[in-house]
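FAQ: What does a multi-protein file look like?

Like this. Sequence, then tokens, then the next protein.
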Amino acid sequence: MVMREFKVLFDDEAALTEGTGVSETIHYGRLSFPKAPPGRPWIYANFVQTLDGIVSLLGDEPSGGDLNGIAEDRWLMDLLRAHADAVLLGMGTLREEQRLKRPRDRGPVFRILDEELRQVRARLGFGRERNIFVSAQAEFQMRDFAVFDGELVDVSVVTTREGAGRLQAQGMPHVDVITVDAAGSQVDLRQAVKALTERYGLKYLLCEGGPTLYSGMLTAGLMDEYFLTVAPLQVGRVSSSGARPNMLPDVGWSAAEAARWRWMSCRRVADYQFHRFRRRG
């Protein structure tokens, strides 16, 4: 596969030279992150959406990979994973991929595939990759999913006390189950991030969603940066599987309440845009 270079359209040079973990890659250029804030990691997200703001087509095309269509976006995902101690995901993302048997019957393992970027990760001083799943009730069988085998990445589940009881009864001690309080019907995400920081000493955490988890992290004040790939598509919200979601399916802020972002950089490959934003305030 021939990788195309990302054409740099804009970089906020002053902001992008801050922090630690500076890497220079042949396709993307320089990438670095600020130091983690006190008591928690620096948390950044990575998503792809259409021009009309849709992040999932649902049905048999539920993931961001069904929207982007280019190898460079997949490579960028690996680049961002290379800079993170761990990847944070909701169980819905894993269930959808397993339902479609992608890439195999028992679903994916969320890990770096590009060998060059594995080397970048090693040079930055990160250890073995870790997938962290968030599930309040944990109503699933870990043996149904390849990621919980623990062969390719370390794996954790953040859940409530009720969920922890279900997982511990399944007898897979290599899966690290972290128990936190519930916030309504969901996991208390502030408590979850605090527990993860204490357990693993996290400095950089990548949130790959889906939208429900991202919405919760944002409203809890836990999102610092946002990498957004904009695909040159318009698809609309109507589908046979229901209304297609945007990034904030359960949020209804006013203009005064809106999350505000600083535009950090923009790159281009063909007709695809690759943006980076940093949370203000």
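And here is the next protein:
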Amino acid sequence: MPHLNREHAWKIVEKLGAETETGRGGHLLAKIYYQGIRVAQFGIRHGSNKDQGHDHIPKGIHLSPHDSLLLARCPMSYETWIEKMKQKGIILDEVNGSS
């Protein structure tokens, strides 16, 4: 299976609506929020090699390497990712406060 690279990382940033900021050492950090709560994050490596591995991304976005690649390549939607996060308990469904 192909490895995730910087191009995949940026596609994931765009699809998940991640906010990017410069972290320690000048590296970019992509943070994914859901209803104002950060639920995932991953670093984006910089350098001259655009094919430099980003195999740390699956752990950061709580997916398998295969599912991460599907997310980057478009078969997996943002909505499907949200549902997977709910199934894993990373994102909790809203609790109705009325009784």
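Q: Is there any per-entry metadata?
A: Some entries carry free-text notes. For the entry above: Residues 27 and 46 are 7 Å apart (CA to CA).
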